[in-house]
Amino acid sequence: MAEQTDIRPTGKAAPPEPARPAKPDSAVIRDALGVGIAVGLSGFAFGVTSAGAGLTLLQTCALSLLVFTGASQFALVGALAAGGNPLTAAAGAFFLGVRNAFYGLRLSAVLGHRAAVRPFAAHWVIDETTAVTLAQPDRRSARLGFTVTGLSLYALWNLTTFLGALGAEALGDTDAWGLDAASPAVFLALLAPMLRSTVERVAAGLAVVLVMTTLPLLPTGVPVLLSALAAPVVLVVQGRRARTKSAGNDTTPTGDAQGRPATEEKRA
């Protein structure tokens, strides 16, 4: 009798992931405006800090209009205020802003803008627009969240930069207002709910440790770049643990190629 081969699948197919529920446009706009307004107000702090570092009103406004990445702007004027070399300060700000390029790679696939629109959208690729965009359940909501966040934040950031630079003396010490902490606080509030798995939480925690331990030792901007090493380190450790667990569970039955026990005698 001919040998029969069992072609039935050995395991069940994984069930599809449940679709994320649609989000009303009003909710997307509300969240996006909340982020844009909250972070945009911290432009006051940059305007005051920049004026205190010796930059003119035109130079301060040009930074917000053309650079538009708060952390890099603060790093630049902070280094200048500390007496650093302008080229060194610019280099630190540049490397700190490199993270936006990685954001752009992710958002390009999510937003799906045409090639003609991408150069203009790229100018709004920052921490806050990325967080709001990735929190949306579908492309339509993602585009709406990105646009509203980028537009409101860009407009308010530049307005408050101008007002902060004009009224630097009247506003006083930015540390007393706490405006310098507004941007990172909002971003952390958006990021925290997205850390759902243990791997994500461990990577985020390790990144914080790297920043806090190297901040007093390295130039401005470098600790943030160094914190990116947390992700590959955690992934490597996770991969080794998975391979070790897989090897421990791998049991190979003894027998010949057709699955008969090794002690079975072959018949003539």
The total strand number stands at 0
Number of helices: 15
Terminal-residue CA separation: 16 Å
If you compute it from the alpha carbons, what radius of gyration comes out, rounded to the nearest whole angstrom? 26 Å
Query: Structural class, from secondary structure content?
Result: mainly alpha
Low-confidence stretches: 1-9, 264-268
In terms of quaternary structure, the protein is single chain
Mean pLDDT: 79
Strand composition percent: under 5%
- Helix percent reads 55-70%
Shape: globular
Order of helices and strands, N to C?
HHHHHHHHHHHHHHH
Largest sheet: none
Overview of this protein structure:
The protein has 268 residues and is mostly helical. The chain is 65% helix and 0% strand. Helix 3 (57-66) runs antiparallel to helix 9. It is globular, with a radius of gyration of 26 Å. The model is unreliable at 1-9 and 264-268 (pLDDT under 50).
Can you tag this structure with a few keywords?
disordered N terminus, disordered C terminus, 268 residues, globular, mainly alpha, 15 helices
Strand and helix layout:
Blueprint: H1 25-40, H2 43-52, H3 57-66, H4 70-81, H5 86-97, H6 99-111, H7 118-122, H8 127-134, H9 139-166, H10 168-171, H11 174-177, H12 182-191, H13 198-214, H14 222-226, H15 230-249
Protein name: AzlC family ABC transporter permease
Family: Belongs to the AzlC family.
Transmembrane segments: 32-55, 144-165, 224-240
Concise description?
The protein has 268 residues and is mainly α.
